[in-house]
Structure formats: C-alpha cells, structure tokens
Amino acid sequence: MKRLAALLLGLMVLTGPALSAPIGVLVEERARTDYADSLPQDGEFEITVKDAPADAVLTLAEFWMDPRSGKFLANAVLETGEVQRIGGYALVTMPVPVPVTRLLPDDIIMEDDLTVMRLPVGRIGTYVMTDMEEVIGKQVRRVLTPGRPIQIQSIIQPLVINRGERVDIYFSDGLLALSSPGRALDDAHEGQEIRIVNLVSNKTVTGIATGEGTVEIIR
Question: What is the reported pLDDT for 20?
Fold first, then answer.
C-alpha cells in the first residue's frame, strides 16, 4: 500500500505540482463513473465520509461502491504520501413532490399543497409520483401525509360524476339531439366511459362523462 502511494506521489511530482481536492468531490467523481448510464437525469449526490482524513487528499487510489446502497470504501492518497482507508455513503437523491399538509380523500391537489423534497433513489419505488405537474389538479383517493411521497394509486383524475348521482344524458347522431334524465351506476372522471340508467326508458346505457353531471351518448 505504501509503495503504491509512493509511486502515485512520484508520478504527480514528475507531471507537475500536486493539487489536492475536497474529499467529497473525489468520491462523487468515482461514484458517477460507477453509476454510469443508470444515474437518473435529475439525480444529485449526497456524500457522507466517515473518518475523513485530516490531511489534504490528492487522489483515490482504489474505490469500491455498492450502487444500490451507496456505500463505498476507498484508499485515499494524502499529500504526505500516506494512504488512508475511508468509507461512507454516496447517495443519489431525486426531487420528489410531497404534501405540506394532510390531504383527505376527494381533496383536489393545488400547487400550494406541495413542496419538493430530495429523497434517496433507493426510497423511491416504482409507484411514486416524481413529476409535480402530474400531481397538481389530481383528486386525492387515499389520505396523503405531509412529507411522504405520493403513490400513484393514492390519486386519481378528478371525478365529475359520482355513483348514484342524477345526471343529464345527451344523445346525438349528427342529425338528431335528445336529452334525458339518468342515474349514474359508476364513478367517472371527464372522458371516462360510464354506465347510467335512463330514467325515462329504465334501460341501462353506456356513455362518456363530458363534465359535471353530464353524459353523452354518441352513435
């Protein structure tokens, strides 16, 4: 180990003045290489070094990391020529929208209800919402807790019709337009297919929810 450090130090002397760098910068450079193409576009590193060297570090002679956990070990070459084993974490974090207040079912999520928190990629599952624009305007399906990531299944498109609600049914074939009262058999958001009972004919028909309490049947 000392011979390796002496060799590296000798090469630096031959090629020019030795330049030290913050240990966090050196660790991030090596971590980025290990992640390569798997590094998320919005990913940023949070570096934690345990037992950081008191002396300036010239380079990392060896570097081992587990990308899944972010845990790393490295051999730091100091300006004194010594080599010191260091360890810590190089965690990749991503921005995630989280509620700033408790949101209840049927609430519509507004921009002021959210803030952005950076979380380790390992804590962000497949079903976590990561795009704030895709969260704003959605309707809460399950209680959302402040500071906790929002699961895809916890929000839905806002409902414009609720099951059991009275609706207005509109029918058009291009030449003839009719309307009739009905009752919804399902919940529906705008543009969703829905079953309704025509209260005039007492028949069940299927249409498209076009707005608050309105269903259109097109043929």
Answer: 56
